[in-house]
Design goal:
Helix content of chain A: 25-40%
Number of strands of chain A: 10
Distance between the termini of chain A: 20 Å
Oligomer: homotetramer
Structural class of chain A: alpha/beta
Largest sheet of chain A: 8 strands, parallel
Radius of gyration of chain A: 17 Å
Largest interface: A-B, 24 and 24 residues
C-alpha cells in the first residue's frame, strides 16, 4: 500500500558503564534512530556518540524521552501530573537537541518511550502532556505514535504531524493494540514470523492479530528492537526484506 | 571605576519537593539569574517557574550547570574526563535553553556551579571542558568566571566573551582567590561588611583580602547567595547601595 | 477508648543540601520517628542525625521506605512488580537499620511512605510486596497501616503485628479512607479542628468525615506532618491536648 | 608461600535493565563474591539474585560499596568529607546485609570499590572513613585491601582483620601499586601472562612489575575482573591453575 517506509530503532539506551544493544550495527540498518534522552537511559557522551554516527550514516535522529526512572528503564507506569510531565519532556528534548547539534545533526522527530508511550494510548492526561511538550518545544517536529489511542487523537487535534508506526516483533491484539509483554507470545522471536508481519504491514496495510484475525494497520515507520539477542541479525533480515519490496527511507 | 554593574544569584536550586532560598523575592533584586540545570539541583518544573518569572521581570537567564551530583549539590570535586564533562555540560545547557524558551526567554550566558567552578581555577582539563562545552553549544554566550585562573585563561584563548564576577559575601585571599568555605571567616555575614565589600569592588576595583591587603578585582557582575538565612534582606541592602552608586544592569 | 496513644511523624526527609521540616523540634514532641530510607528522601548522614537525636530523646525509630523516586518524593504512584518492590523495601530497611544501630538505637517498626502507602490500600500486589518485605527482613517488626484496606488484610494474614494509625490533619471520607490531597479540604489547617479530630479519635474511637458523618477509627498511633508551615506549633498543641487526656507513649 | 588462596570477583554490577558480566558463571569459579551495594552499581533484585546463587554454591558474600556515582560507576574520584563518606558506606553495608540475609547468607567481609579503593591508598581521610564505617557497622568483618597504603595502615591501627589481595590481570608498578588504567599495559589481556602473574603471587609471594623488577606481594586473595570480554574463560584458566597448585578457599 505504501511505496516508502521508514525503519526505526531505540538507540543510546546504555548509561555510563552499561551498554545495551549494538548501536553501531543498527545504525547501518535503520533510517531513523530514537535516541534515549537521559531520564530512562542514555548519558550525554553516549547520546553524542550515536548522534555522530547517525550524522555520518545519514540516519535521522529522533528524541526518545521517557519517565524519570533509570532503575525501571522507563518501563514502569508512573503517575506524573500533566504540567510536570510536559516539563520533564521539554527538558529532555532540549538536552538531546543540544547533543545532536554538537554532533552535526539535529532532532528531527519525537517518539516517547516505554511505559509512557503505552500509557498515552489510554491516559488522556499524559497524552496531553506529550502534545504540550512537542508544541511547547518545537511544533514542527513530527510525533511517532501507535495506530490508535489518546496520543494519536491529541496530536491530531493539536495539528502535530503524526507518523504511525508498527512493531516488527510485537504481537498485536484484535483491537490493534499491542499484546502486553507479560502475556505469552507478546514478543515474536521467529525471524520468519517477524519478516512476514513486517511485509504484511507494508504491503497489505494489515497485521495478523494473536487471535488470528487481520487488523488494518497503516504505518509509515516500522520499529525494530535493538536490545534483544539476535537483534542485529533480525534487523538485517527485515531490512533486506523491505529493500526487496519498498523504498526504505526516513520520514523526517 | 565602572558606571554599570550586574547583580547575579543562583536560583532554581530546589529539586522536586525541596526548595532552597526565595527565588521569587530574589528575582525582584537581581539582574541576572543563574538557573540550575538539573545535575546538581533544579528540576524541569522549577527551572521553568524561575524562567517565567525572570521573563516577566526582565531578568536575564543564565545556565548554571554543575557536576552530576544531587546528593552533594555539586559541591564535591569530581574527577570527570574532559570529553565526558563537556558532554554533561552541553546536555544541561540544551535542557535549560529549552525550558527558558518555553518560558518566553532564553539562555543568555553560562556560569558553572560550585566545585566545578572552583576546580576550574586550577584544573586546566576541566577548564578546557567548560570552554569546549560553551564553544560546542553556542559560542556567542558569555561565560561568567572568577577574576583569575585556568578557566579565565582558557575562555580568553578560545575567544569567548568573559564576564568577571566578584562575590558579595565571600572573603578573598591576598592572591585574589576565594577563602575556602572550610576556613573561619570565609563567608561574610555582617551586612555592613558585605555592602562595604561590594562598593569597594564596584567603585575602587579592589577588595580587602582576609589578610588585610587590598587586592585589585575588576568585576562586571556581583554574585549574591540566595540560600543563606537573611539572604533576601542582604540582597535588598546590596541592591540599594548599588542603586545609589552605579547603574545596575544585566551584561547580557 | 484507649488509655495510651503513640504520636508519629515523618522525619529525615531532606536530601543532601535540602532540608524539610524541623526534625529536631519534632523529636521533642513525638514518640515515634518514621525515618526516610533514601529512595524518596533521606541521605545517610541525615538519617544518622535523626536516629542519634531520637536515641537521646527516647523516641522510637521506624523505617519509612518508599518508591525509588527522589524527584517525586515518593508521592507518585508507580507500577513496580511484587518481587522488585519487596527487594527495594528490604534494601531500604537494612540500610536504615544499619544507620540506626550506628546511632545507638534500632529500627523498631515499619511504615511505608506516600503513594506506596496509599496504593497499598487497594493494590493487593503492592500490599503483598510490603508484607513480603517485612516478613523477609524481620517478621517481629510491627507494621503501621491505615485503618482498612489490602495492606491491613495482608499483614494480618501473615501474622504481622499491625498498628493502625490516624492522621491528625487529613480529612477522612465517609468510608474511612483519606480524602485525596487533590480535593479541597483534604488537609486540615485550622489547629482547633486538628486537635478536635485527634481527641475524637483517641477518646471516642471515631472521626468526623468530610461528609459530616461519624466514622469509627480505632488508632494506636496518630500521625503528624512535619513539613507544613506551622507544623511544630501544631504538633505542640496536639501533644499538649493528648497529654491532658491520655498517656502518650510509643507502641514499639 | 601459601597453601591456601581465595579467589574474588566483583559481581552484581548491573543496574535495572543493564547487566554487566556473567555473574552466574563466575559464581562457579570464585570463592568470594564482592557484591555491589547500589551506589555505583547494583539494584536490590540483582543483589539478591547473586546472593541467592552464592548461598547455593557456598561462595562467601562480601559487601562492595563505592561512591554514590551511578553515571561514573564509582570510577571517578570524589571529594567526600569523612563523616559523610562513612555514613554512605554504612548505609550500603546495611542494605546489602539485609539482602544477603533475605537470600539465606550474610555479608562476611568488606571490600571498597573502584576510585574509592584507589584513592584510599593515599588519602588518609577517605581511608579513615572506610575504617570508621566497618568499625561502626560490624568490627568483626575483615576488610580486603591492597598490599600497601593508607587504608591498610588505618585498618591495622583500628585492629580490623585485613586481607591483602592481588589483581590477576592488572599490571603492577615497581612500588607495588597498580599501573593506572589510563596507561598502556595497565590491564593484562594475554591469558598466559595472567596465569603466570597469579602463580607468581601465590607460589613466590611476588609479582613482576611493569618495569621488570620483582616486587614482593603476599596476598590471601586474588581478584578477577568479570566485566571484560573473555572474563569467564580467563577465570576458568586461573581457577584451574590455582587448583593444581594450592587449595582455593574463601578466607571468611
Amino acid at each position: 500500500v505504501s511505496a516508502v517506509v521508514d525503519l526505526n530503532a531505540d538507540l543510546a539506551e546504555g548509561f555510563g558503564r552499561w551498554s545495551l544493544g549494538d548501536d553501531m550495527a543498527l545504525l547501518e540498518l535503520v533510517t531513523s534512530a530514537n535516541v534515549a534522552c537521559g531520564f530512562h537511559a542514555g548519558d550525554p557522551a553516549g547520546i553524542r556518540a550515536v548522534c555522530e554516527r547517525a550524522a555520518e550514516r545519514g540516519v535521522r535522529v529522533g528524541a526518545h524521552p521517557g519517565y524519570r526512572d533509570l532503575a525501571g528503564f522507563g518501563r514502569r507506569e508512573m503517575h506524573v501530573p500533566r504540567a510536570e510531565l510536559r516539563d520533564d519532556l521539554i527538558y529532555q528534548l532540549g538536552a538531546v537537541r543540544a547533543m545532536a547539534r554538537a554532533a552535526g545533526t539535529d532532532v528531527s522527530y519525537v517518539k516517547v518511550h516505554g511505559a509512557l508511550n503505552n500509557r498515552a494510548v489510554w491516559d488522556a492526561e499524559q497524552a496531553a502532556a506529550i502534545v504540550d511538550a512537542v508544541t511547547g518545544f518545537d511544533a514542527d517536529l513530527p510525533l511517532v505514535v501507535m495506530g490508535a489511542g489518546q496520543l494519536l487523537d491529541a496530536a491530531q487535534r493539536a495539528d502535530l504531524e503524526v507518523v504511525i508506526e508498527a512493531y516488527a516483533d510485537r504481537a498485536y491484539a484484535a483491537d490493534g493494540t499491542l499484546v502486553p509483554r507479560s502475556r505469552d507470545g507478546a514478543v515474536l522471536t521467529d525471524p520468519d514470523r517477524v519478516v512476514e508481519q513486517v511485509l504484511s504491514i507494508v504491503t497489505d496495510g494489515s497485521v495478523r492479530a494473536i487471535e488470528g484475525t487481520l487488523v488494518p494497520l497503516r504505518a509509515r515507520s516500522v520499529c525494530l528492537h535493538g536490545d534483544t539477542p539476535g537483534a542485529v541479525t533480525l534487523a538485517s533480515r527485515v531490512r533486506a526484506a523491505l529493500d526487496a519490496t519498498v523504498a526504505v527511507r526516513a520520514f523526517a
